[in-house]
Amino acid sequence: MFEAIAFYLFAFLTISMFYITVTTSQALYALTALAAGMIFISAFFFILGADFLGAVQIVVYSGAVMALYAFGMMFFDTTREVKEKQGNKAIIFGLGTISAVLIVLIFAAPLVSGNAEALFPMTPGAGNTQEVGMVLFTKYLVPFEVAAVMLLVAMISGIVLAGKKMDLSLTLMNEDEIREMRREENKKVLS
Amino acid sequence: MNNEQFNDRNVSNDYFLVDIEDYPTDGWGKFKRVIKRSFRGELFVGLWVVLREMIRFDIHTVKYPEEKMPIGPRYRAVHEMKRLWESDTERCIGCGLCEKICISNCIRIDTKIDENSRKEVSEYSINLGRCIFCGYCAEVCPELAITHGGEYENASDQREHFVMYEDMLTPLDKMKAATQLEFEGFGAITPHEDERVKKTPLAY
Amino acid sequence: METAYLIETVIKIVVILLIFSALAGIGTYFERKVLAFMQRRLGPMNVGPFGLLQVAADGIKLFTKEDIVPSGVVARIFKIAPVITAATAFMAAAAIPFLPSFTLFGYEVHPIVADINIGILYILGIMGVGLYGPLLGGMASANKFALISAARGAAVFISYEVVTGLSILAPIMMVGSLSLIDFNEYQISNGWIVFAQPVAFILFWIAAFAETGRTPFHLIANDHEIIDGFGTEYSGMRWGLFAIGEYANMFFISFVISLLFLGGYGDGSLLGALALLGKVAFFFFFFLWTRAAWPDVRPDQLMWLCWKVLMPIAVINIVITGIVMM
After folding, report:
1. For B56-107, how does the pLDDT look when each residue is reduced to its tens digit (9 = 90+)?
2. Residue at B97 is within a domain
3. Does A99 reside within a domain?
4. How far is the alpha carbon of B31 from chain C, nearest alpha carbon, in Å?
5. Domain for residue B74, yes or no?
6. Cβ–Cβ under 8 Å, residues C161 and A59
7. Which chains have 3+ CB pairs within 8 A of C?
8. Quick check: A171 contacting C, CB < 8 Å?
9. DSSP string across A89-145
10. CA-to-CA distance for C125 and B107, rounded, in angstroms?
């Protein structure tokens, strides 16, 4: 009974949070609702007994949404409402509804036909974390490693992109050097 | 507690200039500096210093309303009016110099001729809300009548915190007990002044 | 059985909430006293004997103060933010075994609310969520100092989560479990982890300072440059909730360090329990001690320390641990 209560409570909370995320025009509300929704999702993992995935959900998504906050802080005045440019509302609603229905169909079809079955039955005696590890390093080893390499590439390219002119320090240069540098920069723009 | 500690202005001779190295600019130099700073244990020196003070428990707090620091004789707090030692009468002769010199215009003095045809102070007040405690009144007073006392707790619920003549005047019972403190501070004659006096050469 | 378990859990939650919110208040008293003694002062002395009732006076003041919500703030977020800090601090406490299990009136009590087998991950995740409080409070305040503090909070969160996670990875590899109780059992037979993993211990300790925002890394609410950071616009009990969250976090992270690295409560005897409390007291004292002794670092120095020093050391530590374990 407690499980049912918890499930419906968190289902309601999650859906309402994501509803706020989509509908509000206040950036801070949207981001906070997104973070709250992501954390409420972890409750489902805990209800299903997948503690490890639940905790990972909290850790990963709280960090990810934190990065979104950083962008929000840089791009908006988060205390004001954002004026959205809206095109044809009918097209937006139509496409949104169709894609939502499609996604629900894709995930619900196997459940309805009863084809969903666990490919990796629980190993007796192994804990939650070990289960995840075993699947990850046997069946899904290649996707796991590919994802790891992709992340490494992304990290290195991030460093390269952000690291331009990092050896230049305006505080260590004197006035003339700075002026000279500005002139050089302007030259490149004009030519 | 005597006043000598307030006169000791000599700082110790242990002061020296700290020798600061130039900041390294290349990577290797910075790395060496990081290693040096990390393993020299300066952080633990700081920790030890505060812990030592905690263990030693040498508390320097003055619990103010119960304990008070002694203040120097030249401290310029609320004014006092002195009496003459010989006759217990007021020293103030009502010359009005203090009113004239007061740069914040906070002294008000009124005089009248009394029945003995002597000049007498009829009204004297100092607006402590305006007074900046510069000490000019005490300095200019020819009779050493108005002086600065050591009473610094003059909080008030209004800005115009007057002190009247009667409040400042040394009470008679204090004179009877001969406990009026002679003013050593601002405008007073310094001790042993007689020895330093040079006679004006009359030959001019 | 189900009902008994439920009642037991509720009682445990209430006890933990009461004890640690009271301890958070008394923590401020200890902080003021210790700092005062280290600076040759007396600290609070006037309310009650040795100022002991200062906590009550502060509490009454905070509760009765006017709760101001300035115009121009994002009101709902502004009101939620302090609750997040305080609530997540106590949520993290759910997976901490505060004492060894003991028998009370013939009923065995486990002083842990939920013995989930991923305790450490859960605690660190929830403590990380706790930094949403300063972030949201700072961003909703419509105040430039609060915004700077929020930006710093985000930066600290993103970078020091990495150090925390990587530094405890090596001990987790040794123990092979994420449960704090398993850590405790492991250390009974194999000795304290701090002797096997001194580097991880120091890294985790440093990261704990950043996560709780204590003095060497006190830049989220640095009084001398950005007023009170995210707390600038707050008043009354909303500000008080931030303080309660901060101090409760300090206590909980002290428990976590003691349990992870310093043997926890040992074999579960009374002596072991007292030893655990002693270790926690030491770590809490160390938080106050550094505040008296050490200067604050700049935000760029903090980032430098995290990404260029601590993270590489943590990774090297993991690699070496892996090689040794193979």
Report:
1. 888 888 888 888 888 877 788 888 888 887 777 888 888 889 899 999 998 8
2. yes
3. yes
4. 11
5. no
6. yes
7. A, B
8. no
9. HHHHHHHHHHHHHHHHHHHHHHHHHT----SSPPPTT--HHHHHHHHHHTTTHHHHH
10. 70
- Tell me whether residues C140 and A28 touch, CB distance under 8 A: yes
CA-CA distance, C326 to C315, in Å (whole number)?
17
Is C218 within the bounds of a domain?
yes
Total structural domains within chain B:
2
Identify whether residues A112 and A63 lie together within a single domain. Answer: no
CB crowding C248-272: b at 16 or more within 10 Å, else e: bbbbbbbbbbbbbbbbbbbebeeeb
Q: pLDDT by residue (tens digit) across C272-322?
A: 888 888 988 999 999 889 888 888 888 888 888 888 888 899 999 999 988
Provide the number of structural domains found in chain C.
1
Is residue C162 a part of any domain in this protein? yes
Residues A72 and A3 both lie in one domain: yes
In a domain, A40, yes or no: yes
Amino acid at residue number C125: G
- Residue with structure tokens 């390269």? A160
Q: Which domain holds residue B87?
A: 79-189
List, in sequence order, every residue forming a beta bridge with A26; answer none if it has no partner.
Answer: A81
The CATH number of the domain holding residue B87 is 3.30.70.3270
- Are residues B168 and B107 part of one domain? yes
B39 touches chain C (CB under 8 A): no
Assigned token pair, C179: 């449960």
Give the Cα separation of C137 and C129 in Å (integer): 13
For C40, the closest of B51, B58, B63 (CB atoms) is: B58
Please report, as a single letter, which amino acid is at residue C255: F
User: Taking Cα atoms as reference points, which of B111, B185, B174, A129 lies closest to residue C173?
Assistant: A129
Range of the domain at A118: 86-124
Calpha distance A94→A101 (Å, rounded) = 11
Question: Is there a domain that residue C31 lies in?
Answer: no
Mean pLDDT in order along chain A per 10 residues (191 residues)? 87 92 85 88 86 85 83 77 78 90 88 71 70 83 93 90 74 80 69 49
Relative to beta strand B119-127, strand B162-164 is: antiparallel
Which residues constitute the domain of residue C187?
A: 68-325
Q: Is residue B117 part of a domain?
A: yes
